[in-house]
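Practice problem: predict the structure.
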Amino acid sequence: RHSKMEAECMAGQRDSLRVDSSETTVNLDVSTLIAWVSEITHRCPRDHLENKFLNQQAHDEMRAPVLPVLMEVTKGRHMIVCQAAVDRFMSIVSSLGGPMELQRARELLEHIEVVPDEPSKKVMELKENKQIKHLAKIVFGTGYTRNTITLTSNERFLRVAERQGIELKYYLHQPRSLAELKL
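Answer:
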C-alpha cells in the first residue's frame, strides 16, 4: 500500500510509507533526529571517506538526499518526539556529534513538541531481541498510542514488529549517521 505522496517524494528510492497522507502529526524516532542533524545531510562530503559505512552513506546522500525527504514528510504536520527519544538523542549527539551537529540538534528540538513516553501495552509486549530494543518499543509505542506516523530508518524493528502481528503507521527513510568529527 503505497500512497501518491510516496511516489512523488521517493521515485525509486528505498524509502517507504504506510500512512494516509492526510495525517496531521508525525512522531520522530532517534534515527530520524540523527539523520536530520547529520553533517552528511547538510554538507555531503564528495571525497572518499576512510570509514566504509560513512562513505556508503555519503554516496547514498549524493544519489538520494534525506533532508528534503524528511522536510517533505513533516511539512504541514505537527512534529512530536517522546522524552526517552530526546534523552537518547541528546546523549548520542553530546558524545559523538560535532559542534554544528549539536547546534542543529538544539535548534531542531525547538520546533518539536516533546511528549511524555506513552507506549501502548501492545507494542511493549513485543519480545525484545537484537532488532527489538526497549527504547524503540517506547518510541514506536508512543506513536501507536497517539495514532501517529512514526518517521524512522529502523527497518528491522518494523519487520520484526510486523512478524509479531503489530501493524504500525510509519515512514521509512534512509539512515544517516553523525559524521562531523570524522570528516
